[in-house]
Amino acid sequence: MGAGGGGRGMNGAAASAARYAEAFARREPALPGHDLAWLRDVRRAAADAFSRSGFPTPRNEHWKYTNVAPIEKRAFDLDGAGAAPRAAPGNGASGTLPGGNGTSGAFLDGGGAPRLVIVDGRLDPGLSNLEALPPGVTVEDFPRALERDAAFFESLLARIVRPEKTAFAALNTAFMDTGAVVRAAPGAVADAPVHLVFVSGAEGRERAYSPRIVIAAGAGARIAVVEHFLGLDGAVYLDNVVTEIDVAEDAAVEHYKVQQAGAAAYHVAALEARLARGASFHSWAVSLGGRLSRHDIDVTLDHEHARCSLDGLYMANGRQHTDFHTNVEHVAPHCASHEYYKGIAGGRGRGVFNGRVHVHPHAQKTEAHQTNRNLLLSRNAEIDTKPQLEIHADDVKCSHGATIGQLDEQMLFYLRARGIAESAARGMLTYGFARDVVERIARPGLRGPIGAAVLGHLPGGGDLREILQ
Amino acid sequence: MLEIRDLRVAVDGKDILTGLDLRVAPGEVHAIMGPNGSGKSTLAHVLAGRDGYEVTGGEILFEGRPLLDLAPEERACAGLFLAFQYPVEIPGVNNTYFLKAAVNAIRKHRGEPELDAMDFLALVREKLAVLHMDESLLKRGVNVGFSGGEKKRNEIFQLAIMEPRLAILDETDSGLDIDALKDVAKGVNALRSPERAIILVTHYQRLLDHIVPDRVHVLSGGRIATSGGQDLALELESRGYEWVREAAAGA
Amino acid sequence: MDTPNTEIDALVRREYQHGFVTDLESDTVPPGLDEDVVRLISRKKQEPAFLTEWRLRAYRHWLTMSEPRWANLHHPPIDYDEISYYSAPKSKDDGPKSLDEVDPKLLETYEKLGIPLHERAALAGVAVDAVFDSVSVATTFKDKLAEQGIVFCSFSEAVREHPALVEAYLGTVVPYTDNFFATLNSAVFSDGSFCYVPKGLRCPMELSTYFRINAAKTGQFERTLVVADEGSYVSYLEGCTAPARDENQLHAAVVELVALEGAEIKYSTVQNWYPGDEHGTGGIYNFVTKRGDCRGNGSKISWTQVETGSAITWKYPSCILRGDDSVGAFYSVALSNLRQQADTGTKMIHLGRNTRSTVVSKGISAGRGQNSYRGLVQIGKGAENARNYTQCDSLLMGDRCGAHTFPYMEVKNPSAKVEHEATTSKISDDQLFYCRQRGIGEEDAVSMIVNGFCKEVFRELPMEFAVEAQKLLEVSLEGAVG
After folding, report:
1. How many domains does chain B have?
2. What is the CATH number of the domain that holds B143?
3. Do chains B and A touch (3 or more CB pairs under 8 A)?
4. Which of A374, A386, A405 sits opposite C408 (nearest CB)?
5. How large is the ipTM?
6. C433 contacts B72? CB cut-off 8 A
7. Which one, A261, A458, B29, B112, has least CB within 10 Å?
């Protein structure tokens, strides 16, 4: 398809829109749930919304610092995983997976934590292990869940993340054909986190993946889910992920996102959580891989006494571009949100953060605090940050703070005076900067492997493994 | 000077004071003691006119006039002073400016000429010395960045400057080390005079070692369970409040 | 809980004190804008050809532009054909030569405004250029300043007397293509103030301009240009008022500041245009472009503003820190009461090495007011060791107002340190009760707390202005508590 050569401006945009429309028309009859009228409507509306909007441009305030023209220009293969089952992976079921920087295995070793592994858009039963699930918790891949209990999805799917929200959410909704569904019955408590592992780029095709993840916790349930995206370093592909999270009354969901896409990959993810009264939601996200990545994390607090915390870390090295947009809607009174994000940009990398907190009229007694700190490591790196508060109620406690700076020269000198080489000292201090975000991971069992992954992406981090000991 | 008759107060529909009687004459120092939740602070707040307290019965006369109809600032101008348990921070408003505004508001109410900056400063310096307060505190925002002890000293400092007819000290001793406690007591004792009455609201007896009260009342169940002299405070110290509660229940 | 809110409500309801209309004969151009109107304005002002051409270029460019929509502001569309683009008080010949020649009614107006013109000007040591419906009517102390080589006069006069200076600097900080409102101003500006301080000179007095919109259905488009030559210093004050009218009036001013090597400009504004009433009827639409260029090394520009008026305020006094070691500052108090909307803040563009900027913004929202801080801190690649500190606090009074913060930070140099902090608070019941227990009445307590909140900004104003600003704030908030 010729969009790659379609050039810039309207022609390119029109060509890419036509390509997506054509692919949708071709694939629609065979997409999961194609026999469900409501789902067909949802998909078509989403496809239409995308046709109307096209990909966003930097003129759109939400995409001011992130130009997705490289995604628009690529003619990604939209044909999905195809009918034939994927050949058994070469690595077998040993638990090691292909992945960026060779750190991925650590997540799955030991303890036999429940996991669902999807390789190139297809469930890999050999790598998955769902035996250890506690009572009341189910984990399925998206097409199967849809087939088994379509009714569950009707009131939920595309209701939390609205397709019209972003062009990417619309595309995902039109094409969603893989993914995972985690459900916890009321009162169910899962001690071990559920791992959802997505491996992309193993095939040769330049594919666009559209995984849909749905997490629903019934009243009083407590679960933790890890969304882990890995990819092959040489592969060019697009992960276009949408995660919808429904947290019922007094339930608690912890969500961990580890983005380790391949170095040439594009990763775009939208997550939104809906919280009932007394519910709590903790999002922890780290963006390490990918050529260009964008995360949208939205939480709506429209019932009293709900609370959320959003923590995250983004690193951009080489020519990486990474962007986090978080948005907390305080609709109901007596809710609290806490946000703590840190970013590191080195090489020619660019880190973008936009944190919005919106306190609606009548959302009295809101407590909303946000912190964003950034480290600029090199001459050609860039950080753009915009903490944003919009407040329409008066009896609130809101604050935000943002800083951009560099490593403390005095600390650096101190370490060097103790005989530590400069590069190692810089690595140590950089990890020191990131470390308190890692420590905000509530599950001690995840802290080690995620910390190691962070370290793996630091310049000179490989020499610093003993810091973690 | 102060006469409280059958005072009944509720907060959020819950009865806190259930028929409290108290008479305080000029020149007297009364201590109001009681366990946590007995209504001591409620009494202090109601006297000063704080919102959020519903007076469901009884009356309070201050110098023969009904107190409950007056706004907080009118009570202050009439000579009633409350030293807060938790003094409030007001950023950007410097302590001296605040105090001068307060003193002059009251002087104006009394028909006295306002103090000029020089006279006021002289007054301030004199009182600061008594309380061992650092003059730099005056230039800071009201209570902003003050330690707990500094805040309490600042309350007594304001008391000294404003020279009210009736001073109510709400748990002024809580959180003070012994030196600060002595300074505070010295400040309060210096203010004792035949025209002035003082009510000390406190949980502990130790303040009363330094400011010797004429009368001690024990609040329990929303009313005064028992009254006596300083020996009552000592008895509470050794026997605890349970004893009073039981005695009150038995009566 | 109820008391402070009720009280806040009551404080809001007080009439705009400067809402009188002066009955003057004006020379007003009929509403509407085309090239002929632009030429007419230029002709009336007997401008040299370069300026007429510049205006026309601006006008033609303006036709290709549309109103910006990104601000957090809502207003009915402005009909630019309904506005009269020129209104001058009619006066003898070429305008007044001294205060005696100024229409006494006008002087009366200034007196009502409490402006230290006339004798009071001398006492206060303030040199005043008063701009009435965009036409400068009197400049005091001109001669005395001229002795030292300082030019302080109306913009028109500067065009006549110092065309080279005007041509050299006009549009060099805010080009005529800059933005919709600045471009409109470039086409139609009728007057304003001009100031040039020569090398090494410290201007011995505060220079002051008072702006007042008087005529109905007119827009006010004044232009101010301040040039501080190497090593000089000037402090410049600007005050604004307008009569209460039930239609909206457009004010689209441009201020350009140029600080050459080692020069310092302090620019202070107390803006009290008519804010409209509590139903949102009437009031000035204040779309202003203010920008300072720290062109020389070691130069310094600071903006201080107290914005209490206008139905809509759209302004971002900015600093381009081009020279090495240059310093920019922005101190702002913006109050939105009634149905006022303010979208204001600053841009600090760091280009030179060791450039520093400080931003302190205090937003007060009451009634149904909406207050937004919008700021940009940009550190360019070459701006080694740039520093910015931004503090952005909001005070909310009542539950129908809003306070919003949109800070943008873009950093391209790894030696930069940029810090932004923002807090939001209300006047707490505890604070009010504490003050009242000490005998201070509720209104006084509120104004004391609000003034405390604004202190860091007031501190930056010259003394007389600080007192005026404090009073304005009190008046503007009266009825906001109750």
Report:
1. 1
2. 3.40.50.300
3. no
4. A386
5. 0.86
6. yes
7. B112
What's the rounded Cα separation, in Å, for the pair C374 and C371? 10
Q: Whole-angstrom Cα distance, residue A290 to residue A237?
A: 10
The answer, for B51 touching chain C at a CB cutoff of 8 Å, is yes
Q: Taking Cα atoms as reference points, which of C408, C387, C417, C255 lies closest to residue C327?
A: C387
The distance of B236 to chain C (nearest Cα, Å) reads 32
Cβ-defined contact of A391 to C70 (cutoff 8 Å)? no
Dump the DSSP string for C423-474: EEEE--HHHHHHHHHTT--HHHHHHHHHHHHHHHHHTTS-HHHHHHHHHHHH
Which residues, other chains included, contact C459 with Cβ-Cβ below 8 Å and sequence gap of 6+? C466
Range of the domain at B202: 2-250
CA nearest C459 in B: which residue? B92
Distance CA C275, CA C462 (A): 25
Give the amino acid at C279: H
The answer to whether C452 contacts B141, with C-beta atoms less than 8 Å apart, is yes
CA nearest neighbour of C238 among C338, C97, C149, C136: C136
State how far the Cα of B198 lies from the Cα of B44, in Å rounded to an integer. Answer: 12
- Residue boundaries of the structural domains of chain C: 28-427
Q: What is the distance between the alpha carbons of residues A264 and A243, in angstroms, rounded to a whole number?
A: 23
Give me the phi and psi of A235, to 5 degrees please. -80, 140
Total residues belonging to chain B = 251
Separation in Å, CA of A337 to nearest CA in chain C: 15
Contact yes or no for A227/A260 (Cβ under 8 A): no
Report strand pairing: A115-119 vs A194-200.
Answer: parallel
How many CB atoms are closer than 10 A to CB A193?
Answer: 21
- In which element (H, E) is residue A152 found? helix A150-154
Per-residue model confidence as pLDDT tens digits over B84-114: 999 998 888 888 888 888 888 888 888 989 8
| Closest CA of chain A from C138, distance in Å | 44
C121 or A247: which leads in pLDDT:
A247
Within an 8 Å CB–CB cutoff, is residue B110 touching chain C? Answer: no
Closest C-alpha among C338, C365, C167 to residue C244:
C338
Averaged pLDDT in 10-residue chunks for chain C of 482 residues: 44 50 67 92 92 97 94 91 79 46 55 46 49 60 85 91 96 96 95 93 86 70 95 90 75 96 96 86 93 98 94 96 98 94 97 98 94 96 96 92 95 96 90 94 90 92 82 78 52
Query: pTM (2 decimals)?
Result: 0.85
C125: closest CA of chain B, how far (Å): 26
Interface residue B167 vs chain C (CB under 8 A): no
How close C290 gets to chain A, by Cα (Å)?
23
Question: Do residue B105 and residue C436 have CB atoms under 8 angstroms apart?
Answer: no
Of C381, C399, C421, the CB nearest to A361: C399
Whether chain B has a CB inside 8 Å of the CB on C433: the answer is yes
B90:C435 CB<8 A: yes
Q: How confident is the model at residue A460 (pLDDT cuts 50, 70, 90)?
A: low
CA distance B225 to B234: 16
